[in-house]
Design goal:
427 residues; alpha/beta; Rossmann fold; five-stranded parallel beta sheet; two-stranded antiparallel sheet; 15 helices; elongated
């Protein structure tokens, strides 16, 4: 079936209208203030590691949040910062790139074969590493001995994949300053499976593990910065496909659909935008049309385009979030953020309100004469997977972290010029 709305969603335009220019350089002398940046260690998940476009690959790591911050800390006493770099641009082979498909630009798998060395442990030859961001890591995973045997991203740079854990490897470096940004994946598994997959980590368990992580990281007097959790359901993965994405412009099609669903009188179609039909085990009929405020996952696009999901076939439950599930996600993020704020206050650490920064980006912001928003692909803040930040998105968030570090510790760390980092690559 022809769904004009989806075609419009997938038709992306290059940001050719924006003109980049050099940012003004902060006119002050870099100063560490009350912090010691000699040894900086970043702990977290994929957002710290530099995963983008669905994969962890070399240039993405080079433009990772942690590496961008470390580059600025070089001005204020940082000695070195090592990352467990992939050997190529494919990583484990799941990277997405933009390509033309049936007249539209859309993310597709990047062709090629990953370097086998990407899958080998590199600690003995290249470690230890200061970027301890592990894609997929929940807060409890930081303490999981042998986590490297379960998560190949950690397995490739763990000091001992069979016995070590992320926190033990981090403190082995004796950090003088650290970044901790974790908690997103304690919710994302639930959100990205339409509430059908992993459960959300209870706030009480999150608090126990989070405070334990901060206590360990500060045990030798290290200072640091903690980042809070963004509004998860506001990212492009959940906001690109509207609930009423079925745009019908042919009365014959409307009549055919109404006839097909004649046994379900609560489902009706008309010319114009129509709510998608979804499977719902809680509904007496087992299916219904979506309500305003419910969210369709980005991963549903293929089925909507090619399998008639949402029209001929009800959209499976794992491809959308209902209002109760959205509230569960929002409630968990709010509780986590209170825990993170409390930890910052308890241990006297900087607190980065990344949530508010990304909310501002939703409305549209300008840096270095370049416009940004959270729109999928064209917004420039998020990468092609709709979940992880682009290189420029990392730079924007890095400046937020740097700003709160400067305020908390009376430091003068220069910010980065956003326009110096690469944008989304168009074919």
């Amino acid at each position: 079936m022809y769904i004009n709305k989806i075609k419009h969603i997938l038709l992306f335009f290059a940001l050719s209208a924006f003109i980049a220019c050099e940012a003004e350089i902060d006119q002050y002398t870099p100063d560490p203030g009350e912090a010691d940046f000699t040894t900086f260690v970043a702990v977290g998940n994929s957002l710290v590691a530099g995963l983008a476009d669905g994969e962890l690959y070399r240039s993405g790591q080079e433009n990772s949040l942690a590496n961008i911050i470390a580059g600025q800390l070089m001005h204020t006493g940082l000695g070195s910062f090592k990352q467990p770099l992939m050997k190529d641009e494919l990583g484990f082979g799941n990277r997405l790139v933009l390509a033309e498909v049936d007249g539209s630009l859309m993310p597709v798998p990047m062709p090629g074969t990953p370097d086998p060395a990407n899958f080998a442990n590199i600690y003995q030859s290249e470690g230890p590493f200061h970027n301890m961001g592990v894609p997929g890591a929940k807060v409890s995973h930081l303490f999981f001995e042998g986590y490297g045997t379960l998560n190949p991203y950690y397995g490739r740079f763990a000091s001992n994949p069979q016995t070590s854990n992320v926190i033990s490897d981090a403190i082995a470096l004796d950090p003088t300053f650290f970044q901790l940004w974790i908690g997103q994946d304690d919710i994302l598994g639930y959100a990205m499976s339409g509430g059908e997959g992993d459960g959300i980590t209870p706030a009480s368990a999150f608090m126990t593990m989070y405070f334990m992580a901060v206590e360990i990281m500060t045990h030798n007097g290290a200072k640091g910065v903690l980042g809070n959790i963004a509004d998860i359901t506001s990212i492009p993965f959940f906001r690109t496909v509207p609930y009423n994405a079925l745009l019908l412009d042919d009365q014959n099609i409307v009549d055919l659909l109404n006839h097909a669903y004649s046994a379900a009188p609560h489902i009706n179609f008309a010319l114009g935008p129509n709510p998608l039909v979804v499977a719902d085990s809680d509904h007496p009929a087992g299916l219904r049309q979506m309500e305003a405020g419910e969210l369709v996952l980005l991963t549903a696009l293929g089925g909507i385009r090619n399998e008639g999901w949402g029209s001929q076939v009800p959209l499976p439950a794992q491809y959308y979030l209902n209002l109760d599930q959205i509230q569960n996600i929002a409630g968990a993020a709010d509780e986590y953020n209170q825990v993170i704020r409390n930890a910052a206050e308890t241990f006297g650490l900087a607190y980065a309100d990344i949530r508010s920064a990304l909310v501002e980006a939703e409305q549209g912001i300008y840096f270095d004469a370049i416009g940004f928003s959270t729109e999928f692909v064209t917004g420039g803040v998020f990468s092609l997977d709709g979940v992880h930040l682009s290189a420029r998105g990392n730079a924007i968030v890095a400046n937020e972290f740097i700003a709160v570090i400067n305020r908390e510790y009376n430091a003068s760390i220069p910010k980065v010029a956003i326009g110096n980092y690469p944008g989304i690559i168009f074919p």
